[in-house]
Amino acid sequence: MQKVAILAFIVAITAAKFVDTHTTLAQINADPFGHVVLSAIKAHLQAQTPANEVNMLLNAVGAGIVQDQNDHDHAFELDTTTNNRIVEDLEKEVLYHQNQIASNTQLRDDTIEALAVSEDDIRVTIQDIANNEATYAREEATRNQQHETFVAKVAAIDDVIDAIDDAAKLIQHLSLGASFAQIKTKFDTLHKKLSDNTSHSALLQPVIAALTELATHGVNQKALTKIAQLLSEIRQQLVQEKATKTDVEERQAAHWAEFSAHLANEHTRLVERKAQLEVQIQEQKDTIEDAVSWIEFHTLELENSEERLAGQQAWFAVQSQIYETQTAERTAQQDIVDRLQEHISEKLSTTAQFIASRN
Description:
- The chain is built from seven helices and no strands.
- The chain is an all-alpha fold.
- The chain has one domain.
- The longest helix is centred in the last third of the chain and has 126 residues, at 221-346.
- It starts with a helix and ends with a helix.
- Mean pLDDT is 85; it is low at 1-19.
- It comes from Paramecium tetraurelia.
């Protein structure tokens, strides 16, 4: 009874091994690569090739897989190196264009702000020029009016002085014995001239009164001396008035010479400043235009570099996937070869039976 049990156990183990081998070989056969290898082994077995030649076949297949993987590893290593270099260069391009866009954008914005300041400055400068020219015209007109007034008043004073001198001569003639009848015509003309004067009527009034009295009451030495003294005093006053007005005129002329020179210098400075601002504004406008052009250029270049970078990364992702897939396939194929070698070495009979029975 015990022998029967042991025999049954041995049979069970043997059957189990056969089932395991059969299952493994069935799995290998279901794989396209395994199916091809099993077909090759079948051909060798049918030709009653020695077992060692079957192992040589499997070794050659395994060596081919290893060589293919080595070749693929080398090719992928080259692809990886090339990809890394290209990606690095493209990333540098992207960074370069990004930096150029940023710097030109900053330059554009800064220059726009500076342009606004320059345009404000030139508006102020243009207004300052207009104010300067208006001031010059106004002050020049005032100065011309002052001078014309001075000339007119000095001329009036000179006329009065001439009349006073004429009167003094008439008084001198009377003092020297000339009769009133001899000088009456000149006396009447002079009296009228003094009476008609409007610029110094108050100053001349005493003289006019004295001359009128002289003509009315007759000539006497005392009256002549009084009139001569009065004429001398009035003349001195007129000379002093002329000197005062001349002094004022000279001071006003000096002030205008200084002030007009200041205005002229300021006008020159403002005109030069305006010209400088015009050049500066044009340069700023050119800078803005150039910056905008560079921004547009580098934006297009950035898009191109980003597209190339994305394309390169996508290409390498595909190559990586292919590499991983094919590596996995070769690993699986190598596993099939290893398992077949194990079965050929250890379970040749069972393997042969399976191969013979497969379609």
